[in-house]
Design goal:
Helix 3 packs antiparallel against helix 4, helix 3 runs antiparallel to helix 6 and helix 9 packs antiparallel against helix 11. The chain contains eleven helices and no strands. Helix content is 70%, strand content 0%. The protein has one domain. By secondary structure, it is mainly alpha-helical. The protein starts with 7 loop residues before the first helix and ends in a 6-residue tail after the last helix.
Length: 282
């Protein structure tokens, strides 16, 4: 009696590493394609990414003790994301004042009012955490004459830093770095990540835009350090919520927020720095 064998090709499954690489390539392809697609394509990308990230944050907030209310988290997050571009004529102070009065007042009557203050604070925090970084990306992107270049090299610097940190940390890492938050991170990996970000920003800021190498190095350090901080902040939230990933939307990576964590803080520091020295319009 001859046993029937399943063809090897049929039984083969992609390795977790291959799934991770393919999904990362698709994700980055969509992002880069949108960046080169024009302003309205970028607006659409922000709506999708910010919406998914806010949804994932709401799930994390439940695990952190106070479930962020949808009616506060999403409208406020959307406002913050477009507060410097599409909605720049709407006064932020007015919106925050209404958020204070209407938001806290609503918890006098809506379900869950026993946790009202905590839920209100979590909704405001989530809207700021997700919305404001996109606001600064959009302000950089729409700046003339080189907004696209600034955004592309910030994103590439973060990616290069993440890759260098992973490679060096896994092979040469000996000294733990914030081990209670992220046990696999090492000092060696963190240093490699910052160096890679500096090199990438040097190419973009000094090589492409022709700005002083001193500014390029400082910006690289700011991007590298803030990317690490963003990664650790989201890792801390997941530890508090006792989950491994923010969701399972991105195969091999977890959630959208797991992919965005490192790129959330850099545009804020870059925007402040380039505005301070008048570099954005050069």
């Amino acid at each position: 009696m001859t046993a029937t064998r399943t063809p090897a090709a049929w039984s083969m499954k992609p390795s977790p590493l291959m799934v991770r690489i393919v999904s990362a390539a698709v994700f980055m392809g969509v992002v880069v394609g949108a960046l080169f697609g024009g302003t309205y394509t970028v607006y659409a990308l922000v709506v999708v990414l910010a919406g998914l990230a806010l949804w994932e944050f709401r799930g994390l907030s439940d695990g952190m003790g106070f479930r962020a209310p949808l009616w506060l988290l999403f409208p406020l997050g959307a406002f913050f994301a477009f507060s410097g571009t599409v909605l720049k004529h709407v006064d932020v102070a007015d919106v925050l004042s209404l958020t204070l009065v209407a938001g806290l007042g609503a918890f006098l009557v809506v379900p869950g009012r026993r946790q009202g203050l905590g839920r209100w604070a979590m909704g405001l925090a989530g809207a700021l955490y997700i919305g404001m970084p996109f606001n600064y990306y959009l302000q950089l992107y729409t700046a003339q004459p080189h907004g696209l270049v600034w955004v592309v090299f910030i994103v590439f610097a973060v990616i290069a830093g993440d890759a260098a940190a992973l490679l060096v940390g896994s092979r040469l890492g000996r000294h733990p770095f914030f081990a209670t938050i992220s046990p696999k991170k090492t000092v060696e990996g963190a240093v490699a990540g910052v160096v890679a970000a500096v090199i990438t920003m040097f190419v973009g800021v000094s090589g492409v835009l022709g700005i002083s190498p001193v500014h390029a190095v400082v910006l690289g350090v700011l991007v590298g350090l803030s990317a690490i901080m963003g990664d650790l902040v989201e890792s801390q939230m997941k530890r508090i919520a006792e989950v491994k990933d923010s969701s399972n939307l991105v195969p091999g990576h977890g959630g959208v927020l797991d992919r965005l964590d490192s790129i959330l803080f850099p545009p804020i520091l870059v925007y402040f720095y380039v505005s301070m020295f008048g570099l954005l319009t050069r």
